[in-house]
Amino acid sequence: MDDYRALENLIFSYASLVDAGDFAGVGELFAEGAFAGTGGVLQGAAAVERMLRETVIVYEDGTPRTKHVTTNVALEVSDATASGRAYFTVLQAVPGLPLQTIAAGRYEDSFTLTDGGWRFTERRAVVDLVGDISHHLRPRAV
Predict the structure, then answer these.
(1) Cα–Cα distance between 8 and 127 in angstroms, integer?
(2) Contact, 52 vs 58, CB < 8 A?
(3) How far apart are CA 121 and CA 105, in angstroms?
(4) Strands (DSSP E) along 62-116, which ranges?
(5) Nearest to 29 by CA among 104, 90, 112
(6) Any bridge partners for residue 68, and if so which?
(7) Tens digits of residue pLDDT in 7-48
(8) Contact (CB, 8 A) for 81 and 110
(9) Domain 3-141 has CATH 3.10.290.10
């Protein structure tokens, strides 16, 4: 698999894991990296997993009832490092409410190639548009 496809798969795995409610899996994506968002910069797997468990509402099916759609992926690879940009749109459907867009923004990523493959060095999530997130994030997280 070429570097670009491997990096795309890493980017898309983030969305799949969040949508599945696999917060430990999301944390592992940042085992050697950092996640930067509205809550500041979190370093390592445990910190990222803890933040998600404390802020994201999970429903009876074990998921946040979301779909993260990642588009406009642009990657630049230079030997054992890479950078990337992408847009995200978060959709949510919860009991009693219709499917709706709850957030949109962009990711600014940096990556490092390790013996185990490409890893996030840092992901910066910038939210540009916010809808009704009251069924997605706990009130103290808003």
Answers:
(1) 20
(2) no
(3) 20
(4) 66-78, 81-92, 100-114
(5) 112
(6) 90
(7) 999 999 999 999 999 999 999 999 999 999 988 999 999 999
(8) yes
(9) no
